[in-house]
């Protein structure tokens, strides 16, 4: 089964629980990680990797001193990712829910991360789920870190991200089908739960 067929089938069955009708293009995947300085060690988390177009770019660019944790809840997507990236030492696949990210990192001895890359349908998540997920991002992201959110609806959700983050920039990627882009966000505004 092709990635496109799998994505489309899941989108039709699960609607907004799947962020897209199709995997991200290589152009959108590259744009999504364009702000990461790979000349220094990074801890990067990818949420909602799907079939792995962004994961592939992360695997290509991550240096020997960087760690990439790929979190995917869907068992079919997780199986594909395990198969495709089994020989990538910088990558670790975690099958689980993004809201459990703090515990996942704690279990691996990681206190804070440099970047969170999101392929999740953040605007479509139920409000309480979105709040919990963004709060978790605030708990694990370094103060100078970024939350990079892909979108296939350019500029539509800028207001939402401005309510959630102090600083929001948008990069448009017209070569994606449909045209999409990336929100680069810093400074979570939601109150972060104390631990």
TrEMBL record:
InterPro entries: Methyltransf_25 (IPR041698), Ornithlipidmtase_OlsG (IPR048196), rRNA_Ade_Mease_Trfase_CS (IPR020596), rRNA_Ade_methylase_Trfase_N (IPR020598), SAM-dependent_MTases_sf (IPR029063). Keywords: Methyltransferase, S-adenosyl-L-methionine, Transferase. GO terms for biological process: methylation. One of its GO terms (molecular function) is methyltransferase activity. The keyword Transferase applies. The keyword Translocase does not apply. Pfam families: Methyltransf_25 (PF13649). Residues 28-176 form the Ribosomal RNA adenine methylase transferase N-terminal domain. Transmembrane segments: none annotated. This is Methyltransferase domain-containing protein.
